[in-house]
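Thread: Newbie trying to understand structure tokens

Hi all, I'm a second-year student working on a class project, and my supervisor (Dr. K.) asked me to get a predicted structure for one chain before our next meeting. I've only ever worked with sequences, so writing a 3D structure as a token string is new to me. If someone could post the tokens and maybe explain what I'm looking at, I'd be very grateful. Here's the chain:
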Amino acid sequence: MKQIPSVTTVVTQIKNILEGEFRAMSVIGEISNLSSSSSGHWYFLLSDKQSSISVALFKMDALRNTFIKKLKNGDQIICSGSIGVYTKRGTFQLIAKRLSPAGKGDLKVQLEKLKLKLGGEGLFDLEQKKSIPSLPKRIGVVTAKSSAAIQDFLKIMDRRCHWHDILISDALVQGDKAPESIRNGLFKLIKYSLEAPENKKLDVIVLTRGGGSMEDLWAFNDEALAWDIFNSPIPIISAIGHEVDYTICDMVSDLRMETPSAAAENLSNRQTELNETLENCQKSLSRIMKDNLNKYHIELNKYHPQRLIETFYEKINVYRKRINQLNPENKALKLLKIYEKTIYLDELLRSMSLTIENQLSSLKLRSEKARELLRVLDPKNILGRGYTLLKDCSGKVISSKKSFEDQANNTELNLMFHDGEGLVRKK
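---
Reply by user tm_fold:
Sure, no problem. This is what the structure looks like when written as tokens:
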């Protein structure tokens, strides 16, 4: 049996299809039900005569599209973004990323046309770009003096630089009059630098402003401004909007930085590196000086009068010992080689003493063994056990019957007991 999918499965499949198919799209329509939340999100319907679609502009995108605050119900706009499906309710909406007024036409299309035109005329060629000095002494900035962008730029420069001279040329950075104002600000800085003495000339110019929608940044897509930047004798850095924002000024400038803060960091990098190098050199010199002071202190201690006296007495003691060792009286035995002979004789004497002692011990042991053997073989000890010993008149022992029979009759024989002797006569 075929398994029936759950609601979640179906909605998830729809979500994957819609979000995968409609990733980047633009829709034109009329605003209705426009509202904003306390968290900074905006919600509205985008409609035509036959259909409507819900649109959400979240806080971060709303900050870049300040144009939303000027809109009202009934306005025609072009809304760019992607489709998102809210699975809990099974609904879908357009997640807006960029808004533009429909009456002025599609700014994105205009921008692409201008890119192609200026690119074909060589304004974006890399070989035409001037190098940015690594240690700029004087920096010109074209921006609105009251903007947050210039405050961020100045804070970073003050924090990271020990020396810098910044000239600010005030200009409008948004609205219909902004392109002409920016061009005038740029012209003033270039004119000032060309007429200034050598030590007052500008090394680099920065065009900057904070982020916003494409409409807010449209002044920096002006064709005449692009040519002014291209023809500028002074290197120009473009630091407009946020990282995702890209204008014609960014393309034609000699260097594009993502934000005003990034431009300040780039211009101050070399000073920061030099400062770090100087700090490291200072630490290194301080360490070397301390090491040298310690070394010289040790050397000075070596030549202190008290130390010299101690060294002098140490040498005297060493020489005294060497003199004693070299004294002929103490070396007489060694010099005459009697010392070695005496040692040799002492060794022989010890060897002989040991030999005699060993021999005496051996003889004593043998004597005791012989005495014990004689004691065991003493006839008196045998007679004490009940035996007797028969001797002839000459004292010769009669040890056999034959010797006894060889004795003449009536011969007196001595019969020895353990406690005395007696006479017997052979018959």
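A couple of things are worth pointing out once you decode it. Residues 110-272 form a domain with the Rossmann fold fold (CATH 3.40.50.2300). The radius of gyration is 63 Å. Feel free to ask follow-ups in this thread.
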